[in-house]
Design a protein that fits this description.
Largest sheet: 5 strands, parallel
Organism: Aliidiomarina maris
Protein name: Acyl-CoA thioesterase-1
GO biological process, one term: lipid metabolic process
Radius of gyration: 19 Å
Number of strands: 5
Distance between the termini: 34 Å
Order of helices and strands: HEHHEHEHHEHEH
InterPro entries: Ester_Hydrolysis_Enzymes, Lipase_GDSL_AS, SGNH_hydro, SGNH_hydro_sf
Low-confidence stretches: 2-21
Strand order of the largest sheet: 2-1-3-4-5
Structural class: alpha/beta
GO molecular function: phosphatidylcholine lysophospholipase activity
Strand content: 5-15%
CATH class: Alpha Beta
Helix content: 40-55%
């Protein structure tokens, strides 16, 4: 009888310590207008599309859109603590830097902001994934090249996955872009969700096993 009680107690401890694969896990998208849905309804963004898909197929996963149009890496860093406190995510996908690049912000400054975000999140025990960002060559070949390279450098330095930039497959198709030539339109959201859903799901599946 005593051995049975010990066995049951040990099993309960294991269940409490080891997170099952089906445990509820959440991911915050910390992005700019490309994720916030500039020019379209919040309910029609690619992030909202993924949320609806997961409600049907992976109810143990949730995704929260904490993106703000016009945001920069400095803006993301400034509001990161509040975002974490409000949503308590298990993972954060950082999609920031485009506005920094379009405004010609210093490469070192962008890299420093991304690094501080990642270090803070890691310190809170939160898994991080980083989006590669690309900008048009308006700022000159050297700046554009250095800008593109900084994301891989940050990801490698902090051992975080670097997710390919979803706009590379969208921006070359005028029928998927708004008239400003910068932002994806309503028709593009489902296509972006098709690209991003398996990548973000893989992140949460990994987090669920940690």
């Amino acid at each position: 009888m005593f051995n049975k009680i010990l066995s049951n107690s040990f099993l309960i401890i294991l269940l409490l310590v080891i997170r099952p694969a089906s445990a509820n896990v959440s991911l915050v998208v910390l992005g700019d207008s490309l994720s916030a849905g500039y020019g379209i309804s919040q309910a029609d963004t690619w992030v909202a599309d993924i949320e609806r898909r997961w409600q049907r197929t992976h109810p143990e996963f949730s995704i929260i859109n904490a993106s703000i149009s016009g945001d920069t890496t400095q803006g993301g860093l400034n509001r990161l603590r509040d975002v974490v406190a409000r949503h308590q995510p298990d993972a954060v996908f950082i999609e920031l830097g485009g506005n920094d690049g379009l405004r010609g912000f210093q490469i070192d400054s962008i890299q420093r902001n991304l690094t501080q975000m990642i270090e803070y999140l890691h310190g809170e025990g939160i898994y991080v994934a980083l989006s590669q960002i690309e900008i048009p060559p308006n700022m000159g070949r050297r700046y554009t090249s250095e800008f593109s390279a900084l994301f891989g450098a940050v990801a490698e330095q902090h051992d975080v996955p670097l997710v390919p930039f979803f706009m590379l497959e969208i921006a070359t198709q005028p029928n998927l872009m708004q008239s400003d030539g910068i932002h994806p339109n309503l028709a593009a959201q489902e296509k972006i969700a098709d690209m991003m859903e398996p990548k973000l799901r893989e992140i949460l599946q990994h987090v669920a096993t940690l």
